[in-house]
Amino acid sequence: MSAPRKSASLYEIFSSIQGEALRVGERHLFVRLAGCDLSCAYCDTPASRRVPDHCTVHLPSGRVDEKNPLEAETLDALVKRVDEESGPHHAISITGGEPLMFVEFLLPLLREWRAAGFTILLETGGHRPDDLARAIDDVDSVMADIKLRSSSHETVSNEVAGRFLAIASAKELAVKVVVNAESSAAEAANAARLVRDHAPAATLYLQPASGARNLPPDGDHLLALQRAAMAEHRAVRVVPQTHRQLHVR
C-alpha cells in the first residue's frame, strides 16, 4: 500500500448546481483535482488534465488563488470556507481530472468530511477499479462513466468497466454514457449489459454530447440509442448537462 500523500494539485474549488445524472439540481461543493490519465474527446474541462500553477477558489467575496500543490490542511480549510460562504450544500463532489489518481491524498479528507456530516459524491471516469476499492467505504455516491469509443475516442475494456461497476454498486451509483452523432445502438446495448450484469440496481444515463467538436445525436438517433439500451436494462434515462442550460459553472 502506498504511503499517505500529503499534497496534491487542484484545478478549482467552487459551489454550483449539480448538472448531471442522479443528483441533478442539487447544490454541490465541487473539488476539482488536476490531472487525468485519459483524454476523452467529450471532456468539458480539458484544462483540468494539466496541473496549473494555482488552484482557483471561487467565492462570493471574490476569487482566491492558492499555489499548487495544496497540503491537505489547506484544502480542508478552503472547503470549509466555501461551504460557509456559499452553502448550505447537499454534497461535496470530488471530480477532476480523474480524482482516483489521488486516492492516497483524498482518503483522510473524505473520512474527516463525512464525519463532519458532509455527503461525498465521487465523479470518476470509471476505469480505476483498484483505486475505487480503496475509496468506496469513504464515499456515499458514485457517478461513473462507461466510455464509448465513438464519443470518447478512448477504450476501457468490458472487464475493467465491469469490475469498477461491481465495486461501485455497493453505494448509490449513477452510470453515465456520453453519446454523440456517431454512437451506435450496439455500443449503447453493450453499456446497458455491463450495468445489468454488474450493477443491476443502478440507473444508466445517456448524456448527449455538447460542443462543435462532438455533435450530439439528433432526436430520432437518441431515441434509438435509448431503445437499444432499454432492451438490455430498463433503467435508462436521457439527461443532458443541465448546468450548461442554466449558465452556471
Summarize the entry for a quick read.
The protein has helices spanning 72-86, 103-115, 129-135, 149-152, 158-168, 185-198, 219-230, 242-246, and strands at 7-8, 10-17, 27-33, 54-59, 62-67, 70-71, 91-95, 120-124, 141-145, 172-179, 203-208, 236-238. With 249 residues, the protein is α/β, with parallel strands linked by helices.
What does this structure look like?
The radius of gyration is 18 Å and the shape is globular. By secondary structure, the chain is an alpha/beta fold. It starts with 6 loop residues before the first strand and ends with a helix. The protein has a ten-stranded mixed beta sheet. The model has no long low-confidence stretch (mean pLDDT 94). It is built from eight helices and twelve strands.
Distance between the termini: 36 Å
What overall geometry do the principal axes of the alpha carbons give? Answer: globular
Strands of the widest sheet, in order across it, are: 5-4-2-3-7-8-9-10-11-12
User: Treating each run of at least 4 consecutive H or I residues as one helix, how many helices?
Assistant: 8
Order of helices and strands: EEEEEEHEHEHEHHEHEHEH
Question: Over all CA atoms, what is the radius of gyration?
Answer: 18 Å
Q: Please estimate the helix content.
A: 25-40%
How would a textbook summarize the main sheet?
Answer: 10 strands, mixed
Alpha-beta classification = alpha/beta
* Spans of at least 5 consecutive residues with low confidence: none
Kindly report the average pLDDT value: 94
What is the beta-strand fraction? 25-35%
Find the count of extended strands (DSSP E, 2+ residues). Answer: 12
